[in-house]
Write a structure and sequence with these properties.
Blueprint: E1 31-32, H1 53-60, E2 64-73, H2 77-85, E3 99-111, E4 115-118, H3 120-123, E5 126-132, E6 138-140, E7 142-147, E8 152-156, E9 159-160, E10 166-167, E11 178-183, E12 191-204, E13 207-215, E14 227-230, E15 234-242, E16 253-257, H4 258-271, E17 277-278, E18 281-285, H5 288-293, E19 302-307, H6 312-316, E20 323-327, E21 330-331, H7 336-344, E22 350-357, E23 360-367, E24 369-370, E25 397-401, H8 404-410, E26 416-421, H9 423-428, E27 435-439, E28 442-443, H10 447-454, E29 461-467, E30 470-476
Parallel strand pairs: 1-9, 10-15
Antiparallel strand pairs: 2-3, 2-5, 3-4, 4-8, 5-6, 7-8, 11-12, 11-14, 12-13, 13-16, 14-15, 15-16, 17-24, 18-19, 19-20, 20-21, 20-22, 22-23, 25-26, 26-27, 27-28, 27-29, 29-30
InterPro entries: Chloro_Bact_Ser_Proteases, PDZ, PDZ_6, PDZ_sf, Pept_S1C_Do, Peptidase_S1_PA, Peptidase_S1C
Subcellular location: Periplasm
GO molecular function: serine-type endopeptidase activity
Length: 479
């Protein structure tokens, strides 16, 4: 599963390592640290040479901090539902109301006057935040603000003369470049791990505002908020998430590009919050089977799977099934490119989109809105199905129209419910409970719609599918 964050939170899962605390050394008032030498850039990495990780750690390790948090937090809705699903005798006794928790994470110094960046989830619901410097001094930090959309928080501690990191340019990263992470996994301060860039511009579910950097550097609970360095010792990202089936490192880690973080942090310092541009679409990467179904030679572009009613995208005429091939004249190879462009924009910016729609190239201009304004992305309205559907046999699907109460619960106005999947549909990933909304761009309001499209004997079709509140395109080869 995709880890929502790396900070160890909740009283049941918090880790407390007493030797991390330098008790009696807290600084209640502003102090001036001994000024560290100015951090000069490290020599550029020469082709064929291994990166000098030792030099990076020695130079910039003092700029990395540990973060301890304490507070109270109510059980989430998901946790409450999970507890209710247990047999009655197995349910733990959970007192009502907020429960104390302790957590930890990492951060790094971006200004000599005590400005620190970390993840928003590290300090969420915290009542006290303690920053541990590399020399074991501790300071109570003030949270200047946080931004859930990008998972960025800005802290300040009352001390001057700190050594900040050097900031790099994530746009210069390429797959295969060496990177280094420093943080406090499981409370183990100043832990360094190395890896390479596995991908750039990753778009993750629920995180459309961030074009993540994917790496294979070992990142574990407690690394959240720590810096990701390039081979020259420049910070290019903030370690934020992992993909894991165990809760620990499994070789897939994600970092927020530092340019996104700095844009947000500047707004937080100035106003206490951050504003984000909003397009109002959900997109997915193209695959060759999807490209075939859309009549495209190459699987390039961002496939629009959902358009929010009333959004800037809807106002500009974007539709589910459009393939965004260019953004401001630049070719779009993957969906993450759209996230990256929106992340760099502010409300009111205009972007030019070149799209592929039903075999034709179309140009649109969108004026971006403000994130948080207007309706959330939802299923487009259309007529509901009205008869039993057995016509999905060529696709390997057993289908039936949604009942009125099912449409109301899912907030859908049309669609055919998948009661069973086998053959081509099962191989494509369709399963019981999915709802087919459209086939090759045509809304599905009855089985006849499927039959009309399949009568042309296409080699592959693109099904727009609703699944657990989200929409995605699934390519299927009819038999």
């Amino acid at each position: 599963m995709l880890g929502g964050g790396l900070a160890v939170v909740g009283s049941a899962g918090a880790i407390d390592l007493p030797w991390l605390h330098a008790k009696g050394q807290s600084a209640p008032a502003a102090q001036t640290a001994a000024a560290l030498p100015a951090a000069e850039p490290l020599p550029a990495l020469q082709p064929g040479n291994a990166p000098n990780y030792r030099a990076i750690v020695q130079r910039y390790g003092p700029s990395v901090v540990g973060i301890l948090v304490e507070g109270k937090r109510s059980a989430s809705d998901d946790e409450a539902e999970a507890l209710q699903a247990l047999p009655r005798g197995w349910r733990p006794a959970v007192p009502p109301g907020a429960q104390p928790f302790r957590g930890q994470g990492s951060g790094f110094i971006v200004a000599a006057d005590g400005l620190i960046l970390t993840n928003a989830h590290v300090v969420k619901d915290a009542q006290t935040v303690t920053v541990l410097l590399a020399d074991r001094r501790e300071y109570t930090a003030k949270v200047l603000g946080s931004d859930a959309a990008t998972d960025i928080a800005v802290l300040r501690i009352p001390v001057q003369g700190l050594q900040p990191v050097r900031l790099g340019d994530p746009a210069q990263l390429a797959v295969g470049d060496p990177v280094l992470a420093i943080g406090a996994p499981y409370g183990l301060a100043q832990t360094a791990t190395a890896g390479i860039v596995s991908a750039t511009g990753r778009s993750l579910p629920g995180d459309g505002a961030v074009p993540f950097i994917q790496t294979d550097a070992a990142v574990n609970p407690g690394n959240s908020g720590g810096p990701l360095f390039d081979a020259a010792g420049n910070v290019v990202g903030i370690n934020a998430q992992i993909y894991s089936r165990t809760g620990g490192y499994q070789g897939v880690s994600f970092a927020i590009p530092v340019d996104v973080a700095m844009r947000v942090s500047k707004q937080i310092v100035a106003t206490g919050s951050a504003q984000h541009a909003r397009l109002g679409v959900a997109v997915q990467d193209m695959t060759q089977p999807l490209a075939d179904s859309f009549g495209l030679a190459r699987p390039d572009g961002a496939l629009v799977s959902q358009v929010a009613p009333g959004s800037p995208a809807a106002a500009a005429g974007l539709q589910a099934g459009d393939v965004i091939q260019r953004i401001d004249g630049q070719p779009t190879v993957q969906a993450g490119a759209l996230s990256a462009r929106i992340a760099q924009a502010v409300p009111g910016d205009r972007i030019a989109l070149g799209i592929w729609r039903q075999g034709k190239a179309v140009d649109l201009t969108v004026t971006l809105g403000r994130a948080g304004d207007g309706a959330q992305a939802g299923a487009p309205a259309n007529g509901a199905g009205d008869e039993a559907a057995a016509g999905g046999a060529r696709l390997g699907l057993a289908l039936r129209p949604l009942q009125p109460e099912e449409r109301a619960q899912a907030k859908l106005d049309r669609g055919l419910l998948v009661q069973g999947a086998q053959g081509a549909a099962a191989r494509a990933g369709l399963s019981r409970g999915d709802v087919v909304l459209a086939i090759n761009g045509q809304p599905v309001d009855s089985v006849e719609t499927l039959q009309r499209v399949l009568a042309a004997k296409p080699k592959r079709v693109a099904l727009l599918v609703w699944r657990a509140g989200e929409q995605l395109f699934v390519p299927v080869a009819p038999v």
